[in-house]
Amino acid sequence: MTSVTDVAPAPGRSRRQLTLGTILHGSGGHIAGWRHPSSPPGGQLDLDHHIQLARTLERGTFDALFVADVVAIWGHQYDSLRRTARADHFEPLTLLAALSTVTERIGLVATATTTYNEPFHIARRFASLDHLSAGRAGWNVVTSVVPLEAGNFGRDTHLDHSARYLRAEEFVEVVRKLWDSFDDGSVVRDAAAGHYYDPAGLRTPHHAGPHFTVRGPLNISRPPQGHPVIFQAGSSETGLAFAARHGEVVFTAQTTLAGAQAFYADIKARAAAYGRDSDHLLVWPLLSPFVASTRERARARLAELQELVHDDVARRLVQDNIGDLDLSGYPLDGPLPPIGATNRSRSRQELMLDLARREHLTIRQLALRFTTAGAVVGTPEDVADHIEEWFTTRAADGFNVSFPYLPGAAEDFVDHVVPELRRRGLFRHAYETTTLRGHLGLPRPRAGARPWADTEDAVGVRDAAIVGSANIGDSAGIGGGGGAGPRPVGARRRDGAGTAEGSR
User: Fold this and answer.
1) Integer Cα distance of 491 and 479 in angstroms
2) Whole-model pTM above 0.90?
3) Which residues lie across from 54 on neighbouring strands?
4) Between the CA of residue 271 and those of 13, 160, 249, 279, what are the distances in Å?
5) What are φ and ψ of residue 184, in 5° steps?
6) What is the pLDDT of residues 454-481, one digit of tens each?
């Protein structure tokens, strides 16, 4: 096998550069964003709306836009579901294929689960998107934690935690083998000689493992990036181990500077333990900006959205993100009842329970704090201060920006925060490369390269992490987040390590 040292070098950079991505929710990342006066209520399925958003973000030279997903509706309690826009959304890869034709540089990242897909399907779809976009595709790898997904795939129950992660390990391995089915340059398309590809460059995987038997090869030539960029999220022990092995961009939802710095140092050290270059793993905390010309106006924008959260929605936010429980018999303005273990995201559950107990929050207060995960409220300079502090103190390599309502919040950020970041020398004035890997400063893997060194020590660390943490925590994508609430200027907390995960 080829080790991690056998990869092409990353594009040279004179210094570290801030990176920015965004979660593309149709009407906004806040649960009540679709009700905001400036948001189109039907934005979830409005292609022209998405096109304009993508072009706005590309004007702001964002590295990537990201579409979250679960393969089910976002809940089954119709009292709350009917009051949100979460039951109605595009399939991510279909949407991104459309956006690839109207954008030129911005990266296009989609969520796809390893639990309810097959490796050949995923390898082919993301390779196709990478070709359609000329090298701008990314895959957000999730294992699914929403039990409703099981019922759409012939299962009565969701796979347990350990089974999901063991399957995911092999799944990613097979996908990488399929992407490497053809060596670079082996598809020659020589019409004169009658040779479409050089057989010497064909790498048929012939994979046989405990979960998958895949002959291959993939029926599309090697992606322009070699491999689409791997995105991942996870704050539990298992999620961290998986992200450290496979993730090239890792989402997180840290709520304090100290917690973010600890997470950053830990995940980089874990990556190094697998023989990876830690600079080739980027950390993106969640950021939800409420920007206005004055701090008072910014706070008013936050309050306006919070007033739009219906009681039924607040109750379900807590129920769905702490675990499978029924809070209908408990007053919203009372404390949480005792909570037992569930098959949902345990790190998210622990975060929310710890927050509620530490600050003596009611169910309603906890729900409203959850809706403002990653929120920074203030002027463009205030938001830039937060970004600069976290970036320069090694709490983040960039941010996964969730705009609370759209399109207004994205336009405010691009028109006012991005110029301030550029003025400070933190962010690019124009794209310097054409691929997502190029934007992020990530190396292009050579065919057959591994994401970690194949030494006995590295393999031992990997296997111990899979087995030893099989019943601890979970990993998740970002789709709602969790945390300690909005950070008005002057009130940033630096103690404690809050982490959260969203809708995966």
Assistant:
1) 25
2) no
3) none
4) 21, 26, 12, 9
5) -60, 130
6) 434 444 444 544 444 433 333 333 333 3
